[in-house]
């Protein structure tokens, strides 16, 4: 008798969403990048490495320790526990985050409505889980949409309904139409997820008028807005628009933020502002933040105390503000975008079959190209041309344009951007020649 010792798990024993392209696309991009480390990545939307200095970490933690000792009056034993032990599920630096939001974004909230997270991605999972309670609940998302939210919805089994963006961004009338269409089928549109500033992937920034219109639709349709704002701290004076949460006296906005772009991604510190009042089944009254903290206690327990200390030190060092500390970063990203747009203008003259968006600021530009921008073409681009980009099809709930790709200019220096575009132009030129062959 043969006894099998290995376990072979087939698709019937795995969660079906694990095979969904939305979940596998980011992993595929990382795999291709790891196989071709010499390739120039116009795909990565991460911060520029030149802003990081490991020697600063100790000083930031010391800054936070002084705050706990002098301003909070904590004894040394309690400070040690604060840094080394499990902490509050909702976080330790909530007051500092709330002060930062007030000073930089004019968002005035009670620290009790802030939950400090292990990155904003955790917030997407926790907020979606808290709000979407049954099979009839539907999450509205922009189309295209940040892949992290699409993946979170897939993992949670939450249905999404796409609201297509227009050339100038998301229109409130389209949100209302999709919400009404969902409601007409007996389902419940619960919330709309969007990135209103420097949107990932489209690069749009909604105007003040567009934001007020969205808030009006949210109020009339009893729809929450999940505002994801990873780039708001990097907006210069020219493109700064109030966050939706700053315009939200009716508490229709759940605000997600992160210190990945302004501190560093490795800290994995984000936050959610959820000041909506709730009444639980047992009659308790509280805030949506309390429910989100309860959910995340079953996911990550709490956010790294050391990471919170680093971010807390950064906020303290800036007097609670990040905009002033971010002046160099804001200038770098603006300059990089100008370099990218200029390189595209020189490499793809009129008649080249290539067109692109021209955002005023931010990390991302969308290109329309004369070839199918899929995984196979991306692999060819990395192997033969040494340049990476992201297929735009990754960002659409139901599949998207097959001839579009996203470029990011944040992680590179100007010389790398120009060389990356030169390599991309070679890919376009050769692809056109191949398609023209009989």
What attributes characterize this protein structure?
alpha/beta, Aspartate Aminotransferase, domain 2, Aspartate Aminotransferase, domain 1, 438 residues, 15 strands, globular, 7-stranded mixed sheet, 2 domains
Description:
This protein is of the alpha/beta class and 438 residues long. The chain has two domains: 15-44 and 326-436, Alpha-Beta Complex (Aspartate Aminotransferase, domain 1); 58-317, 3-Layer(aba) Sandwich (Aspartate Aminotransferase, domain 2). The protein contains 13 helices and 15 strands. The strands form four sheets. Strands 2-8-7-6-5-3-4 form a seven-stranded mixed sheet, with helices on both faces. The protein has a four-stranded antiparallel sheet with strand order 11-12-15-14, with helices on one face. A hairpin with a 5-residue loop joins strand 9 and strand 10 (285-287). The protein is globular, with a radius of gyration of 23 Å.
Number of helices: 13
Estimated share of beta-strand residues: 5-15%
Provide the gyration radius in Å: 23 Å
* Oligomer classification: single chain
CATH superfamily placement of the largest domain: Type I PLP-dependent aspartate aminotransferase-like (Major domain)
The CATH top-level class label of the largest domain = Alpha Beta
Give me the CATH architecture of the largest domain, please.
3-Layer(aba) Sandwich
Q: Overall pLDDT, averaged?
A: 92
Provide the structure class. Answer: alpha/beta
The CATH topology of the largest domain is given as Aspartate Aminotransferase, domain 2
Strand order of the largest sheet: 2-8-7-6-5-3-4
Molecular shape = globular
Secondary-structure element order, N to C? HEHHHEHEHEHEHEEEEEHHHEEHEEEH
Low-confidence stretches: none
State the helicity in percent bands: 40-55%
Specify the biggest β-sheet: 7 strands, mixed
Euclidean distance between termini CA atoms? 60 Å
Number of E-state strands: 15
Number of domains: 2
């Amino acid at each position: 008798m043969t006894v099998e010792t290995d376990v072979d798990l087939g698709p019937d024993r795995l969660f079906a969403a694990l095979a969904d392209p939305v979940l596998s696309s980011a992993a595929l991009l990382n795999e291709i990048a790891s196989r071709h480390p010499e390739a120039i990545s116009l795909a990565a939307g991460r911060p520029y490495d030149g802003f990081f200095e490991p020697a600063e970490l100790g000083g930031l933690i010391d800054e936070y320790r002084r705050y706990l000792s002098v301003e909070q009056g904590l004894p040394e034993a309690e400070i040690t526990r604060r840094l080394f032990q499990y902490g509050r599920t909702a976080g330790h630096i909530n007051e500092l985050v709330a002060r930062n939001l007030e000073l930089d974004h004019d968002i005035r909230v009670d620290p009790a409505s802030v939950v400090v997270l292990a990155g904003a991605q955790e917030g997407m999972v926790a907020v979606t889980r808290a709000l979407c309670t049954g099979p009839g609940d539907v999450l509205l998302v922009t189309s295209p949409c940040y892949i992290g939210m699409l993946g979170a919805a897939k993992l949670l089994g939450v249905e999404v309904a796409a609201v297509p963006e227009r050339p100038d961004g998301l229109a409130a009338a389209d949100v209302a139409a999709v919400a009404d269409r969902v409601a007409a089928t007996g389902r419940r549109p619960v919330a709309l997820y969007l990135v209103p500033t420097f949107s990932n992937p489209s690069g749009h920034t909604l105007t003040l008028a567009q934001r007020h219109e969205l808030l009006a639709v949210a109020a009339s349709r009893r729809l929450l807005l999940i505002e994801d704002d990873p780039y708001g701290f990097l907006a210069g004076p020219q493109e700064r628009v109030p966050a939706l949460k700053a315009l939200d006296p009716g508490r229709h906005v759940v605000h997600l933020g992160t210190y990945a772009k302004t501190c560093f991604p490795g800290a994995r510190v984000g936050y959610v502002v959820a000041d909506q009042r709730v009444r639980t089944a047992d009659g308790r009254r509280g805030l949506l933040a309390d429910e989100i903290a309860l959910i995340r206690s079953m996911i990550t327990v709490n956010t790294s105390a050391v990471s919170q200390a680093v971010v807390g030190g950064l906020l303290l060092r800036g007097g609670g503000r990040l905009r002033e500390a971010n002046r160099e970063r804001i200038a770098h990203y603006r300059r990089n975008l100008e370099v990218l747009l200029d390189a595209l203008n020189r490499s793809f003259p009129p008649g080249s079959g290539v067109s692109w968006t021209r955002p005023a600021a931010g990390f991302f530009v969308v290109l329309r190209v004369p070839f199918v921008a899929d995984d196979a073409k991306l692999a060819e681009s990395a192997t033969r041309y040494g340049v990476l980009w992201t297929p735009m099809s990754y960002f659409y709930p139901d599949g998207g344009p097959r001839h579009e790709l996203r470029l990011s200019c944040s992680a590179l220096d100007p010389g790398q951007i120009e060389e990356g575009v030169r390599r991309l132009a070679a890919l376009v030129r050769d692809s056109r020649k191949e398609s023209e062959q009989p």
